Amino acid sequence: MAVASLATACLPPRVLRDYPRWRIVGGQSFARDCLRAEAYVRKSGKTGIGVTLVLRSLHDCAVEIRRAELVFPDGHRAAATADARALAPMVGRTLRYHWLPLPFDNDAAWDDGQRDATLELELAIAGQPVVWRMPAQHRWDQRWNDTRLVRR
Question: Which domain holds residue 55?
Answer without folding.
Answer: 19-139
